[in-house]
Every structure is written in C-alpha cells, then in structure tokens.
Amino acid sequence: MNKRHMWNVRGPRRAVTGGVLGLVMMGGGLAGAAERTSPLGEQPLPKVQLTCVGSARTVFSPALSPSSQSGSMIFSSRYGGCLSLGGLGVSSASVSNTADSFKNYTCTDALGSPPEKVTVTWNNGETSELSLQPAEVHEESTTTTVSYTGEVVKGKFKGFSVVRSFTYLNSDFNGRCLSTSGLTETNALSFLVLARVN
C-alpha cells in the first residue's frame, strides 16, 4: 500500500484526529474502539461514537480529461447504515447536492474535489456542520482512498472529531479519463466516522 500526504499544491493543511483516521484506514469499527491505544502506547485513540457507510457522487461539467479545464461540479452523498455507541439516535444521513466550481482541473484533481465544509442531515431532521481538511491518500492496485479530517463545528455532535473518506476505483481515472467522453462523474464508497477525543 502506498500512503502519502495530499495536496501540497493547495497549500499546507493541518491534519487532525489522526487516531480516528488510523481506525478507518485499518478497518477499525466500533467494537473495542474505546479500548485501543496509540502505536506508542501512550494515550488512547479517540473513542469512536458513530460509524456510517454510504456512497458519494460527483458530477463534472464539462467532463474531466488529461487536459486542464475549468467548469462546475455537483456533490451528493448518502449514508444508509450508521452504527453508534450509547444510543446517539441516528441511523442514516445525507449530504444534499452542493455545487462548486473548478479551475484548471484534470482527472487526477477529481480525487481532491469533495467540499471541505458540508452540512450532514440526519434521519431525525437534525443537522451537523462539518469543517474538514485534506489528510491522506492511500493508493492500492485497484482503488484509491482519500481521507479528510476535522470536526463538527455546529449543530448535532458539535465538538466531535470527524473522519470522512472516499474510496474510488482506479479504472475511473485510468480508463474513463482517456475515453472520448472523459470523466463525467465519480462514484465512491464513503465512510463517515465521528469520535470523542477526551
């Protein structure tokens, strides 16, 4: 597995909740999360309270290609299966359509396209505003996972740490990008993890 920090070209970013990111990347779930310790054995990792799995979609206009271009994109995601500790009262969530523009993008820039400020709407109607920063890219032979870390800054679960990850098929970038139609959209498996850090 090739692991690297991401988007130096977009300026320095401060990564947060590295312990939660580690749980996501290692496939750690809720079971026993509160008992795990850091690799150095000094402090416990953040206590995962909620894990949601779902899908994310980004549509580009015009379609991306190996040549840089500018245009607009629309993001949306849904999380249909949320597991929680302590009866947090939510079971699913969605991030409604969010429009943004892009400038001088090629297909590889699609990996960094999800917005860094999003509002999550839970199944009970409550909302959480997330402030996220790019953290890491994990490259495998067939997939690439992009992770963001941050916190809930407003609404339900305010103060919780957050990891949001997106796993893409490499064929989207290696195959569809070079096709005549270009990369019109990306679809990703997405995880949303909320944790307490104290």
UniProtKB/TrEMBL annotation:
So which domain of life are we looking at?
Bacteria
| UniProt-recorded name of the protein | Uncharacterized protein
